[in-house]
């Protein structure tokens, strides 16, 4: 390694910014020596914990314009944006994105989120940053989050929901402002005495382009995607709390079918224990007073009442009780044992029914 690069690294490490500025100013070191896979002054400075003020100075000293570059060295990814994430330099992330860093860039066909999770750098604080800066979550990203931690995917859904709502509000406000401006734009333009007819047309065009650009910025929305198999997995484990948490963020039109939304899931489950799972699921909904939508028309909601849910629950309960009683009266031990194996919740409920 050249002596000047060694010296630069030394000054960065000890944070002697004054000496570094003098060195870069005197020797006029070429950019390709300061930014390459063997040494990248920006990535190295982020790694060494240099201040945001110093990072901004590096941009000036080295005349850095491109920030979407990256290197793979021994299967290790190095890039300004990625380094800012792994070293939790949130101010620098903001700065780089303003400078044009693409948060949706792919590194050898891997998304930023996938690379962070795969290499065990991901923490929950990253979710709000990704959502804020319009990271485009994919189904695979959501799968990676839920595999790492169920709470992570719920946090992502919550952040996305809030972000999308905010975008809708901004879009609606912008749309109203745009209409008002379109009404007044002709008057405003004509009031300018020195504007010719051609200038007037150009001004209108600029105004329209300005609002189109703003509109495009406003309408970015992430789509929440909940896998059918997530529900199946949690039904099999009888982790109903997680099912109901996911259901809160369900965006498909099928959600408005209420309990019928889960019909396909129950049909997919093992028939031997399907009704027992459904019975326990209904019990959880009733016991925890979960609101299940009945229908949704023009933003008008109506929820299934508790009586309806209890009737559904009792219907299954009675059928099971009749079947079990039949096996007992016939001394059909083989079926009794099979029934016990597949109806654990029913048996527990019958032994200790709630008061």
From TrEMBL:
UniProt cross-references to InterPro entries, sorted A to Z: Ankyrin_rpt-contain_sf
Taxonomy, superkingdom: Eukaryota
Entry-linked SUPFAM superfamilies: Ankyrin repeat
Name of protein: Ankyrin
Organism: Neocallimastix californiae
């Amino acid at each position: 390694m050249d002596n000047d690069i060694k010296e630069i690294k030394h000054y960065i490490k000890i944070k002697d910014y004054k000496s570094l500025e003098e060195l870069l100013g005197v020797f006029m070191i070429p950019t390709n020596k300061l930014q390459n896979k063997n040494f990248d002054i920006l990535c190295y400075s982020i790694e060494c914990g240099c201040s945001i003020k110093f990072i901004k100075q590096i941009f000036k000293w080295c005349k850095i314009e491109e920030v979407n570059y990256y290197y793979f060295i021994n299967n290790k990814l190095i890039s300004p944006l990625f380094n800012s994430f792994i070293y939790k330099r949130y101010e620098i992330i903001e700065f780089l994105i303003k400078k044009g860093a693409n948060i949706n860039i792919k590194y050898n066909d891997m998304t930023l989120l996938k690379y962070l999770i795969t290499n065990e750098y991901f923490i929950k604080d990253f979710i709000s940053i990704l959502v804020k800066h319009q990271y485009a979550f994919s189904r695979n990203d959501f799968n990676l989050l839920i595999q790492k931690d169920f709470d992570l995917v719920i946090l992502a859904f919550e952040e996305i929901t809030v972000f999308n709502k905010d975008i809708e509000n901004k879009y609606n406000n912008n749309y109203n402002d745009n209409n008002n401006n379109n009404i007044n734009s002709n008057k405003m333009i004509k009031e300018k005495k020195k504007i010719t007819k051609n200038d007037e047309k150009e001004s209108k065009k600029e105004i329209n382009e300005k609002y189109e650009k703003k509109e495009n910025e406003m309408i970015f929305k992430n789509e929440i995607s909940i896998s059918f198999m997530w529900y199946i997995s949690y039904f099999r484990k009888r982790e109903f709390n997680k099912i109901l948490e996911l259901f809160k963020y369900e965006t498909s039109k099928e959600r408005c079918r209420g309990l019928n939304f889960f019909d396909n899931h129950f049909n997919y489950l093992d028939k031997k224990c399907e009704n027992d799972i459904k019975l326990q699921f209904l019990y959880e909904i009733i016991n925890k007073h979960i609101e299940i939508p009945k229908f949704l028309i023009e933003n008008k909601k109506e929820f299934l009442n508790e009586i309806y849910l209890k009737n559904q629950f009792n219907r299954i309960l009675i059928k099971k009780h009749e079947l079990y009683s039949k096996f007992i009266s016939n001394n059909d031990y083989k079926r009794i044992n099979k029934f016990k194996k597949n109806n654990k919740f029913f048996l527990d409920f019958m032994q200790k029914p709630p008061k």
